[in-house]
Every structure is written in structure tokens, then in C-alpha cells.
Amino acid sequence: MKIEIWSDVMCPFCYIGKRRFEHALEQFEHKDEVQVEWKSFQLNPDLVTDTTISNAQYLADKKGFSLDHAQHLQNSVSQMAAEVGLTYNLDKAVVANSFDAHRFAHLAKQKGLGDEAEEALFKAYFTDTKNIADHEVLAQLGSSIGLDAQEVHHTISGNKFAIDVNKDVAEASQLGINAVPFFVMDRKYGVSGAQAVPVFLQTLEKAYDDWKTTQQPALDVVNGESCEVGGDC
Q1: Which label site among 7, 46, 180, 212 has the fewest CB atoms less than 10 Å from its CB?
Q2: What is the per-residue pLDDT across 34-78, written as a single tens digit (0 to 9) for each?
Q3: Which domain holds residue 83?
Q4: How many domains does the chain contain in total?
Q5: Which DSSP letter does residue 23 get?
């Protein structure tokens, strides 16, 4: 059974959702029959990488919040991340466009390292506060998961996989996805947001039963905490 996950590297709920989904998958009786594919999504495709401002300041400026309110929001999501064993250092996160990071992820997916790339990117951005738009950073991340650093440099110095990223974004639009993370199970059931583990597990079981009986219901979506295009994340 195929599960497609649309996410953006800069989305704090995407990393949390990834971890909760993984915990659900560990409990799923038929996990060996599940194939996970990561899909690209950009919350702010026009964002210009800026290493001179804080993530909180960027959020405050973008949404018209006070800096204190932006920091409060970030503290809340950091606490949520800690509850699933993740360390967020959002006060030091680099404001960066994620397009090249998504192209890097597509290269990794081509090599069978899609999940490893997503984990490396999330950790680099949220925990290690690295600039995920920096090509040297991406090359180093590539080496850490088994990719050739020179191939990573060659890939992201040109336009390779740009079409693939845009195709994922367009596909999300066609499916009505405007917030991430978004989990699509066998193109029948959708889970929007960083849902609780039991919700993921229940949907996995339902989707698997339908997959086995080849039923074709319309996409049924469960909604939860997520980042929307132009939203607060």
C-alpha cells in the first residue's frame, strides 16, 4: 500500500507529523506492506533566503505579529516537538527558500534514500539550524546519508529535478492540498496535519482494509495541525 506525504522542510508540523506517523507505523501490523513516498510542497515559494534575520522576526513581519507573539508561537510548537522526542531551536533557524532542498530530496529519492533525506533536512533545519538553501550544506547532508557530494553539487547547481518539484506542487493543488503535512493513503484516505498517533493508526488500518478489498471511495480527509500556504508557519 502506497502512502504519499506532502511536506515542506520549513514546516514545523511536518517534522512532528513525520515522527507521529512513524510511531503509528511501528504499531501497524502490516507495516512491511507499506511504501512511503515523500512529495514536495512549498509554503512560500517566493521566499528569499535571508540569514540576517531570525525566524521569529520573519514570522512577525510576514503576519503583522508582535515579536513576542511570534516567539510565543514558536515556543508552543517547540514544546509539541519535544513531546515526540524532537529538539527545535527555532530561535536560531535560518530563513531559507526550500526549493533546492526539495530538488536534493528528489535526487535522494531516485537513489532509494527519500526518507533519509527528509529526516536529514528536518534535523538540519529545526535542530542544527543550518541553512538548507546553502549548496555546501546540502552536499554535506547528502554525504551523511550515502549520496555522492559531487553529484549533489552538480544536481543543485543546475535545474535538475526542478520539474519534479513543480509537478509535486501541482499535484497537491489538483488534490486540494493547501496545508502540510498531508498524508495520502492509497489515494483513498487523507490525513491533514500532525495528527495523534491513534488517528494515524486507525486510518492506516482503514486504508489497508480497503486496499485489500480494492474498494474505491472518494478521498476522505482527517484534519489536524498543519501549516497552510501563507499561514503562520
Answers
A1: 46
A2: 999 999 999 999 999 999 999 999 999 988 999 999 999 999 999
A3: 2-228
A4: 1
A5: H
